[in-house]
Amino acid sequence: MVEDIMQSAEERMNKAIDSLENAFGNVRTGRANAMVLDRVRVNYYGVPTPVNQMAAIKTPDAHMLVIEPWDKGTLGGIEKAIAESNIGITPNNDGSCIRLAFPQLTEERRLELVKDCKTYAEEARVAIRNARRDANAAVEAEVKNEGLPEDEQRRAEAAIQKLTDSYVAKVEEHFKKKEAEVMAI
């Protein structure tokens, strides 16, 4: 029973880390990153299709993405979808591919992005602490309903706290890494 509670809490904590990584992937750092296109959907024969399933995405240098569609007829649709997606980059269509130039970020913009990253990290910490709270409540329910011994309850709560601390440390590690990436010129 306690193992199931621990496993469930760990799964929720993993989901919080995955969500954090996804949020960090969408933060523009001034470097070309194909993940900014993950949310962009192109209307391809009536089906909203991700850009990465319609084209090769290349990074010839640190500040440029080149999108080469496999079907050249979709070039206009991809350009339109990127322009409407609010990623903050204007697509440049040269007839055979689309170029996305990532401008250098100002110091002020970098600080705003770090603040956004702090918010994402705090949301992940809250999700992890919520998983801990729910796991501890489930252990207490086991004590009341199933007659789990109190020393077993204390061991389970200590293990849950140790798991929580390790995941909060992972969040901090991810945040420090992203902060350094955003602040790098």
TrEMBL record:
An annotated GO BP: translational termination
- Name the Pfam families on file: RRF (PF01765)
- The domain of life for this entry's organism is Bacteria
Q: Name one GO molecular function term.
A: ribosomal large subunit binding
Q: Which GO terms describe its cellular component?
A: cytoplasm
Annotated ranges, domain Ribosome recycling factor: 20-183
Give the family from UniProt.
Answer: Belongs to the RRF family.
Which NCBIfam families is this protein grouped with?
frr (TIGR00496)
Q: Please state what the protein is called.
A: Ribosome-recycling factor
Can you name the source organism?
Denitrobacterium detoxificans
At the highest ranks, the source species' classification is: Bacteria, Bacillati, Actinomycetota, Coriobacteriia, Eggerthellales
**Which gene holds the coding sequence for this protein?**
frr
